[in-house]
Design brief:
The chain is built from seven helices and no strands. By secondary structure, it is mostly helical.
Length: 163
C-alpha cells in the first residue's frame, strides 16, 4: 500500500504543479498553524473553526494540518498524494461551507460579502493530478519508495535464508 502511495514518474509538469500549489498554500497554512503572515496560529484558528464555523475538533485540526504540513509536503515531494488530497479536500470544503454562496468571482473591488470560489477551483485543478499521478520529478517520494523497496527485499532475503 505504501508503494502505491509513493509511486510516481519523473514528470516535470507534475513537479511544477506540486511546487506551485505548495508555495501558494504555504502562507495560508503558516497563518493557521504558526500565526505567520497575520494569521491567528493554531489555537486561534482552531477556536474559530470550532466556535464560529461549528466544525468538529478533529476536522478543524485536519484542516489546519492539511494546509500547514501539506504545503511543506508538496514543496518537498514527500507524501505528495496524501498532501494533495488534504488540500483538495480543504478547497472543496471551503467552497461548500463558505464561498459557494458568494459566487464565482473573488472580491476584487470589495463589493461582495466575501470571496468567491475561483481560487479554490484553481487549487483543485493543481491538486487532483497530484493525487492521481503522484509527485513527479525531484520528489522525496522517489527516495522513500526506493528505501521501502530495498528494506522489503532485504526482509524477503532474510526470510528465505531462515527457511
Amino acid at each position: 500500500m505504501l508503494q502505491s502511495i509513493l509511486k510516481t514518474d519523473q514528470s516535470k509538469t507534475l513537479f511544477a504543479q506540486r511546487l506551485l500549489l505548495g508555495l501558494v498554500m504555504f502562507p495560508h497554512g503558516a497563518q493557521k498553524l504558526f500565526g505567520w503572515f497575520g494569521g491567528y496560529g493554531f489555537s486561534g484558528t482552531l477556536g474559530f473553526f470550532i466556535d464560529t464555523m461549528h466544525f468538529p475538533a478533529l476536522l478543524a485540526v485536519l484542516v489546519i494540518l492539511a494546509e500547514g504540513l501539506g504545503s511543506l509536503g508538496l514543496v518537498l515531494g514527500l507524501g505528495t498524494r496524501i498532501a494533495a488530497f488534504g488540500i483538495a479536500a480543504n478547497m472543496l470544503g471551503a467552497v461548500l461551507t463558505t464561498h459557494l454562496s458568494v459566487g464565482f468571482f473573488m472580491n476584487w473591488f470589495g463589493k461582495q460579502q466575501g470571496e468567491g470560489f475561483e481560487y479554490h477551483l484553481l487549487a483543485l485543478a493543481l491538486a487532483l493530478p497530484l493525487v492521481v499521478r503522484g509527485a513527479g520529478a525531484w520528489a522525496l517520494d522517489h527516495r522513500l519508495l526506493a528505501l521501502t523497496k530495498s528494506s522489503s527485499s532485504a526482509a524477503a532475503n532474510a526470510a528465505n535464508q531462515l527457511s
